[in-house]
Design a protein that fits this description.
Distance between the termini: 37 Å
Number of helices: 3
Order of helices and strands: HEEEEEEEEEEEEEEEEHEEH
Number of strands: 18
């Protein structure tokens, strides 16, 4: 479990100890602090292939940061660590400059991995909005994301899983993808997920898995301390959108309130075409409801 005080400087050795029992080969640690009502970014650890250039100030007072992977993707044997600490009262949006590509496993190499640790302090806000994860044929990858949220913290996170390079006939041709997600408040777990996809052993086209759909998307909208009645209202608003945009056989969506503090939206789609715009619509609705502010979609670098 992550034990971090938002705003505390992190050194590389401590980061490696906190993240995993494995020795990470590349680490990035970002810290966001609020001073005089303005959020400032501090980069405490930055090792190749990770790269962060600067933070862009947004119209809503948040700062936007792009994560770069200079190698162009995740290679066999890569071990990446990402840590994001948002201090009390700070607000940040973190995105990537493109999809995360998982390359073919190389004989004799270790499975690639990424460990992400996120903490958001009291009254802080983080929007973690990465582009799609694309496992190429023969790839073997594990990733975990652990999120700890303080009192009245707000957190938005979306994730998209693509089937692989369809144009090259590689849909669901990866060997293994394991994903672990943990979202917690200071007092309880909010969401725990742990699944392993091995398409060659257990075909994803099975009705009990993805059926005829190829892409999967999730949105997590968390507001620590929000009453259960509020969450049911938000769930209803998001399901109204889900019912409007769903077309069985092409794309389906649904929203569900968690036992406490948040709502999850999940979707399956036969194509990637409508996923980005629909995710933004869900996120914008949830952000307006939980914060009273309009969402500012991530600005991508040209």
């Amino acid at each position: 479990m992550l034990h971090a005080v938002a705003g505390t400087r992190v050194d590389a050795a401590q980061f490696a100890r906190d993240t995993t029992v494995h020795q990470l080969k590349a680490q990035l640690a970002l810290r966001f602090e609020s001073s005089a009502g303005r959020t400032q970014m501090h980069c405490d650890v930055q090792e190749p292939p990770w790269k962060v250039v600067r933070a862009f100030r947004q119209t809503n007072g948040s700062v936007l940061v792009h994560l770069h992977n200079l190698s162009g993707g995740v290679l066999a044997g890569d071990s990446l660590g990402l840590r994001i600490d948002v201090a009390a009262g700070a607000a940040a949006q973190v995105t990537t400059i493109g999809a995360t590509r998982l390359y073919r496993h190389r004989e004799g190499a270790e499975i690639s991995e990424q460990r992400t640790l996120i903490s958001v302090g009291e009254d802080g806000l983080l929007e973690y909005l990465p582009d799609a994860l694309i496992p190429f044929a023969g790839s073997r990858h594990e990733q975990s994301t652990t999120v700890t949220l303080g009192d009245r913290a707000t957190f938005f996170w979306w994730e998209v899983l693509a089937p692989g390079r369809q144009a090259m006939g590689e849909a669901f041709a990866y060997d293994r993808l394991r994903v672990e997600n943990s979202l917690r408040s200071q007092t309880r777990p909010l969401l725990l997920e742990n699944f392993c996809l091995e398409p060659r052993l257990r075909p994803l086209q099975s009705t009990s898995r993805m059926g005829g759909y190829l892409h999967a998307a999730n949105l997590y909208a968390i507001g620590i301390g929000r009453p259960a009645a509020d969450l049911r209202v938000l769930e209803s608003k998001l399901n109204e959108i889900a019912n409007e945009v769903s077309r069985p056989g092409s794309i389906i969506w649904g929203a569900s309130a968690l036992a406490a503090d948040g709502v999850v939206v999940r979707g399956l789609s036969a194509t990637p075409r409508d996923l980005p715009a629909t995710l933004i619509r869900f996120w914008s609705t949830a952000r307006r409801f939980l914060t009273g502010e309009e969402a500012v979609p991530p600005r991508k670098l040209k």
